[in-house]
Amino acid sequence: MRPLLRVSIVCGFVLIGCSDDPVDPDPPEVPEPPGAPPALMRHCDGELCLALIAENFTMPLQVVSPPGDHRVFVVEQRGRAIVLDETEQRTYIDISADVLMRYENGLLGMAFHPAFASNGRVYLHYTDAGADNIVEEFIVDPAADVAQSPVRRVLLRVVHEDTTNNHKAGHLAFGPDGYLWISVGDGMVPSMARRTTDLRGSILRIDVDAGQPYGVPADNPFVGDGTSMPEIYYYGLRNPWRFSIDAQSGLAFIADVGTNQYEEINVVPYDEGGHHFGWPIREGPDCAFSETCESDGLTPPSAYFSHSDVPRVCALIGGAVYRGDAVPALRDRYVFADACAGLRTAAFDAAGEISDLSEWMFAEVPGVGAMDIVSVGQGGDGAVYLAMHARGEVYRIEAP
């Protein structure tokens, strides 16, 4: 597939061609999935459009849906999860009283159990008053649009120094294996990421359906070694803000936010645990803090982007592989973003190597300004949604 083209938007919100031909037809109507929020406006760039579906949020960080559910849930950093159902916005869960709202702390992630429709179990990842990462389970009425009096239990606490402000990661997702995957940043203590005796700087994998407060899958790579934390599945990560696990390809896609040099995408088989992705020894293709460094045993990134690139990258936002048909330009492509450079898509081969890469899009929209993408998520219908942190908006990717 050829790379997506960058096209200036000079013909209004919907790009249908910028010639002087007065007989260009109006763009076709794009039907909304049943119950999906309608578009308030659309901005297009070549083969893709961003449809604004909701606004007036306070620092949204994630868009997520229960499996097979038409509702869209928006996670706000200050501690609320908002449910969208057509044109309605309702506060679904509010834990703002429990959340530390400071820099990169806050309510950072949300995931629904694969059997949410029957068991009502939803999971939140946040930082508490002591700046520790908390993963907590809530049991709610799965059909309700307000989580009334949920039954709560803390599953996991990752301890940080109480002055830690950044590198908390915070993503949650259930893999095709049925286990809960959890990203934890290094908490601004780089040395922790190379250790398997500390949960920081890692992707964790736990079984929420076994044990108290959870079980550890027997095939986690450090089970039974006597010194390592058995929850660790991957390590050597600085701040793996968003990741996804693609059942069809069998690959895990992990974006790691870099420091001064590079942003990374790490792609490996999801059933192959134990990878050390290099931090703090290496960043991208280079040594992180010295001119020479040891690389044995490290897994190099599948793709990396230099901070000296144009447009400038600053914080890579991991996304997901689109498997739908409604947006042909995205089919079977990994959709990701950067908080400064905008939106991008890529194709990966079966070995996790990048085979095609689009240009950056939607860093800014004429007449609107910088988009500030902080999260790329999928709805229950497979549609791709974007959260704009500073703008307080949520967009859906659509075909022109």
Q: How would you summarize what this structure contains?
A:
The longest helix has 4 residues. The protein is built from one helix and 29 strands. The protein has one domain: Neuraminidase, CATH 2.120.10.
Supply the key terms.
4-stranded antiparallel beta sheet, mainly beta, Neuraminidase
Describe this structure as you would to a colleague.
With 400 residues, the protein is an all-beta fold. It has a single domain, classed as Neuraminidase, CATH 2.120.10. It has one helix at 116-119; strands at 41-45, 48-54, 60-64, 72-76, 80-85, 88-94, 107-112, 121-127, 133-139, 151-158, 172-174, 180-184, 202-206, 232-235, 243-246, 251-256, 262-269, 282-283, 286-287, 303-306, 316-321, 334-338, 342-348, 354-357, 364-365, 369-370, 373-378, 384-388, 393-398. The chain has a 5-stranded antiparallel β-sheet, with no helix packed on it. The longest helix has 4 residues, at 116-119.
Architecture blueprint of SSEs:
Blueprint: E1 41-45, E2 48-54, E3 60-64, E4 72-76, E5 80-85, E6 88-94, E7 107-112, H1 116-119, E8 121-127, E9 133-139, E10 151-158, E11 172-174, E12 180-184, E13 202-206, E14 232-235, E15 243-246, E16 251-256, E17 262-269, E18 282-283, E19 286-287, E20 303-306, E21 316-321, E22 334-338, E23 342-348, E24 354-357, E25 364-365, E26 369-370, E27 373-378, E28 384-388, E29 393-398
Antiparallel strand pairs: 1-2, 2-29, 3-4, 4-5, 5-6, 7-8, 8-9, 9-10, 11-12, 12-13, 13-14, 15-16, 16-17, 17-20, 18-19, 21-22, 22-23, 23-24, 25-26, 27-28, 28-29
